[in-house]
Sequence to fold (431 residues):
Amino acid sequence: MAEKGDKAKAMAGGTDILVQLRADRFRIERLVDVKGVPEMMEISYSKKDGLTLGAAVPCYKVYENKEIAKAYPGLYDSASLIGGIQIQSRASIGGNLCNAAPSGDAIPTLIAYQAIANIQGPKGKRSVPAEQFCTGPGKNILEPGELLVSLKFPAPKAGTGANYLRFIPRNEMDIAVAGAGVSVVLANGAIASARIALASVAPTPVLATEAMQYLAGKAPTDEHVERAAELAKKAAKPITDMRGTIEQRIHLTGVLTKRALRTAISRAKEA
Amino acid sequence: MNTKTLVSCKINDTDTDFLCEPRQSLLECLRDVLSLTGSKEGCNDGNCGACTVILDGRIVDSCLVLGVEAQGKQIITIEGIATAEGLHPLQQAFLEQAALQCGICTPGFIVAAKGLLDREPKADEHRIRHWLAGNLCRCTGYDKIVRAVLQAEEMQAKKK
Fold:
């Protein structure tokens, strides 16, 4: 990859990149299948250290893993929403992040869980928070020759709950018109902290920081959840396109944030 | 530099070697190199599922797998579904329920449904519809397809 620089690309499941190459989205001279790299296929979880997820691990290995589904329900939600069963046999969470689509169903979840992207390249290793990884539609911070090796999820604190929801006009197999990935930590009957990341409402997934700050320290009531959902709408700066209008997407952001927060709170209570 | 790569794999329980270019999809290799034309090209971008094959026990869109990735793998295509004794229950049920019209999507549906029945022989209608969401049919409206899969489950259960 280093040898070919920006004329080389990594392929994990290939479900995005093979389509993009056929459509002449970009021209490259080398496509590197990274599924043979052990660190990129690693999937290891412990209560103390959290989850290390190799960037090329296919979605089904995430949602069929009972420990991960229990510890990171938001990740389970995202992994089981990406594509259909055929796609989930191949597509990876790391690939979804690298593809950097504003609508990527895994990215809000990675941001909500404060996942760290472990990157390796010719100049060495670096680690970047998931929310800084995407820089524009289809663009990410990887330099030529660099590779996303794995994603590191911190161990969930006691009382953590999460959820990812998206709106699509079909039941399955579609691209999010809007999406919301949230995580909450409950302590002593109150929301100790909350994270809300939104998909398909900006050039990159975005954090709804005002809504997050509002929820910190509040009781997990419907009234506070509804107010937070209103504040989340302010973080949405969508466009009108074939999938939805600005007004629809802002409205959806409120509805999805509200519902995802409710589910995350009830999951946190069960955790 | 060689322009083609030798790939050795098992297709429908038969050891198979073939030569392919690095850019060729598994679907192209099956159809154009190995003359296994049962797998269909619908969209060639992972939306329609007409090219579904079973790769090491998981259903995949063969248009989104490179031929070179088949090295060392086990592949089941629509040509490997029927046995020496006759049609697979799914094939029989698709016929009896008239679960096809133009037929282009049928190999993909049958292979995808086999992927489900091999894992979950008692999947309910909801599960079947969810599992087959990656397969598109523009003729039947899906009801007959779902009924055929349910019938195949019954036929399989009776056989045992």
About this structure: The first helix of chain A runs from residue 17 to 22.
